[in-house]
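User: I'm new to structure prediction. If I give you an amino acid sequence, what do you actually give back? Let's try with this one:
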Amino acid sequence: MSANQTPPTSGRDADHWARPVEKLQVSKLPDGAINVAVAGRQLTGPIRGFGQLWQKTYRLKMIAPRTRMSGEPATPRDVIKAWKENFGSFWPRGNRFYSSLTQITPGDVAVLNLAGPVGMPLSTGVMVIYADDESFAFMTPQGHIFAGLITFSADQNDGDTSAQVQFLIRASDPIFELFFRLGLISKMEDRFWETTLLNLAEHLSSTGKVYLDVHLIDPRVQWSEAKNIFQNAAMYTMIYVVTAPFRWLGRKLKRK
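Assistant: Good question. You get back a string of structure tokens that encode the predicted 3D arrangement of the chain. For your 256 residues, that looks like this:
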């Protein structure tokens, strides 16, 4: 679903889709969480990004995964259930997923505090646009590293259970596109999702190998979207971090 498409309003799948929103709203966050580029922003599907359009698929074939509670062989539904209930805990250290809900639910808006490219922090977010028992999907807001759609799924083939993360993305602005071309963001993303999938497998008493499949769908950039640079989440996060001492001083003076 792109940012301009409307999910079904009736039928069997209607409850699995998030309702359209004009701007994102964020629930109360824990102390220490940074939210400078999520609340009040719009969603941006791949059609609203700047850079080349890519499809990237990370796929892990798990060896005899088992459910945590019963120890029975894990089905694709068991994998997705575990993934939704523990989503942020599978991420590499230094990255945080802040959500008001206990598991992934359509319409949920999560704030992400990430270890960004070239060592700079990044505060951004995602919205859950779809979730059922066998898959779920996120869409990114303005200012995210990329404008796109991320789908998480699990399946079973010839008795083997696999978990998959698939991206349909463009770099959101010229700065992030430059980082993509230099390989800084791609390498970071590859390590991030390989670690995540392996942590998911470990949670299910399994292991395996992550395979990456990459396709360049559209080699052109969209110059009409170069203005996205003014929404760049890394820029807003850096300003927030640099001005933190002044905010602290202001609070001290106010209390006096």
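You can read the tokens as a compact description of the fold. Here is one thing that stands out. Residues 84 and 215 are 27 Å apart (CA to CA).
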